[in-house]
Each structure stands twice: as structure tokens, then as C-alpha cells.
Amino acid sequence: MLSRWESFVSGAKATLPLLLGVVPFGLICGAVCSEAGIPVLGAIGMSLVIFAGASQLVVTQLLAEQASTLVVVMTALVINARLLMYSASLAVQFRGASARWKAVLAYMLTDQAYAVSIGRYLRSDLPPVNKTFYYFGSALVMWSSFNIATPIGAYLGAVIPAGWNLDFAVPLTFIALVVPAIKDRFAFAAAVGGGAIAFLASGLPFNLGLMTAAISGIGIARLWEISSEARHG
Amino acid sequence: MVDMQHYWPVVVAIGAGTFLLRSSFLVLLGRAEVPGRLVRVLRFIPAAVLPALIVPIVLSGGGEAGGGAIGFSRPVAALVAALVAWKTKNVLATIGVGLVTLWILDWIISVSL
Q: Distance between CA atoms of A231 and A81, rounded to whole angstroms?
């Protein structure tokens, strides 16, 4: 069994390669903010308070399009609802830790810290780690690099000319994130359904197109999965 | 441009809601069993949400900078990026190749017009 410190360092080290994706993501979150006229302090505050990049990009875009407050909040929460799934999975692993400690760990929860940690907990060929400290090492690396990258991106976004089309880095980031998420044919159906309905529904009032598309895509995938399970017993 | 008057309330509301999602099972429902059906629905969120974000942005043209007249450079660059993402699973390579493809296509279009 690794000590707390060894577990912390081990979790941090396992997360370092992922920074190649996290740092550009943080930079883009900052850059998009400054393009939308949000001051640097606003960008820093958003990353600290929300700390979920994909939803932050959407929030910035919807706010710039003058979407209603309720739609912006609901859309962001639909995107972040996946964190519920990680929370459920980690609750089993962190049993026995104090509520205050778990609240700190929960605030830092990301796709990456979850994936790195759960991957390590399931390894039976390596000595067991202190679970909360391994996760804390991973989450702290994620948290600090993202929150350092945001103000740098906010500054760069203000000085890079519009002709560079840096706004296109946002859909490119999403493309890089979605491809590994398409693990089976049901997830593929969710992706095609979500994309197609978002295109058809882009004229919906109050920018409701995104939420409609996301919920429809999830519904299509789940219904197909249920019906194929029923057929194969 | 973003109306800064409503900015902080929106950010704080989303931050609080996201914290509730993150802490749901970890802190609040520490002893509750996780319903399997819920997990099976939630795991489709990234696959459905991200294309719903990508498609309208890519097909809506280039905003102010792209002029909108050049309709195909962004979809083509997005497809090239998707191929890179699939082959390399590398975020930086995906963003880099996608951006460079867009620059090259826009340059070719600007010279040939």
C-alpha cells in the first residue's frame, strides 16, 4: 500500500501527459472570454467557480448571443450532468472519507481526474494506493493547470488578430473530446442524433436547440439500446 | 458582446449547480446505491452533447472573420480534424491540424478568387 504522499505524487504524475489537452483547453476558454468582451477577471472567476471547460465555452457563446439566463444555466447543467455519473462511481471508492474532504474532492472533479483515478483503482497488478490522495494528486494538477491557462488565454485572445480564426479551436476541441467518447454503436447513434437535431433545431427560440438536441440524442441511443437488449434477451 | 450585468449571477448559479452535480453521490448521498439505469443514460451525455455543439458552429460559416461567403472550408477542416482525432486520440494534434487545414483552405480560396 502506497503512503498518502506516494499516492498523491503517483496520481499527479499519471495526469501530466493529459496536460497536452488540458492546457490548450484552458487557453481557449480564456481566449473565447476576451473575444466575447468578458474582462480577464471574469474569465478567471468563471474557471474557478465553474471549473468545467466544455460548459464554460457554451456559456460564453450563449451569453454573447444574448440567450436568456435560464436557458444558459439549464444548458450548462445538462452538459455537466455527466459529472453525476463520476460522483456516483467515486462515492463507492471514497467510502469512509470525511464529508468536508469529499466536498473538496468533489469541487475538483473532472473527466480526466475521474478517468485516471478509476483506471488506477482497478489495476490489480500494482500495489494499492491511498484512493483519495491519488485522486487529489490528479485533480490538483488538472485544477492548477486549467486555472493558470485561463488568464494566459484571456490575454492572448485579446492580442491575436481575428483573421487567425482562433474561434475555430472551440469546435476542434470538442471534436478531440467526442471521438474517444464514441465507444459503441449506441454512442455513435447519440452523436449522429445529437448533431443532426442540433442542425435542424438551430432556429429554435431562446437558444433551446442545443438542449433539445442533447436530450434527443441521449434518448435515441438509450431507446435503441433497450430495444436491442430486449431482442437479444 | 456579453452583458456584464448578468454575468456573475449566471456564473455563480452554474458553479453552484455544477458543484451539486459533482457532490451529489460523493457527499450528499454517501450511502445510497447508484441506480444503474441512471448511469446508463448519463454515459451518453458526452457523445450526444458534443456533436450538438460542433455541428451548428461548423456549418454556420466563419462568423465575422470568415465572411460567410466561404461555406465549405470549416466543414472540411472539421472532417480532417475528426480523422486526426480518431487516428491519434491527441487533443493538441487535432486542434493544430484542424486550424492549419482551415488556414490553407481559406488561403487557397482567397488566392483563387
A: 30
Q: Give A81's contacts (C-beta < 8 A, 6+ positions apart).
A: B21, B42, B45
Residue B74 and residue B77: Cα distance in Å, rounded?
Answer: 5
How many Å apart are CA B62 and CA A159, to the nearest integer?
A: 19
Helix, strand, coil % over all residues of chain A, rounded to 5: 80, 0, 20
The answer to whether A117 and A135 are in contact (CB under 8 A) is yes
Does position A167 have pLDDT exceeding 90, yes or no?
no
For the entire predicted model, the pTM comes to: 0.81
Q: Quickly count: other Cβ atoms within 10 Å of residue B113's Cβ.
A: 7
DSSP state of A3: -
**ipTM given for this complex:** 0.86
Pick B56's closest partner by Cβ from A84, A172, A198: A198
C-alpha cell at B25: 453521490
Give per-10-residue mean pLDDT for chain B (113 aa).
89 98 86 75 86 87 48 92 92 90 91 81
Do the beta carbons of residue A47 and residue A150 sit within 8 Å?
Answer: yes
What is the CA angle A225-A228-A229, rounded to 5? Answer: 85
Which positions 54-113 of B are in contact with A (Cβ < 8 Å)?
Answer: 54-60, 62-66, 74, 77-78, 81-82, 85-86, 89-92, 94-95, 98-99, 102-103, 106
CB count within 10 Å of CB A146 equals 25
Is the separation of the CB atoms in A187 and A193 below 8 Å? no
In the prediction, which pLDDT does B31 show?
65
pLDDT score recorded for residue A233: 66
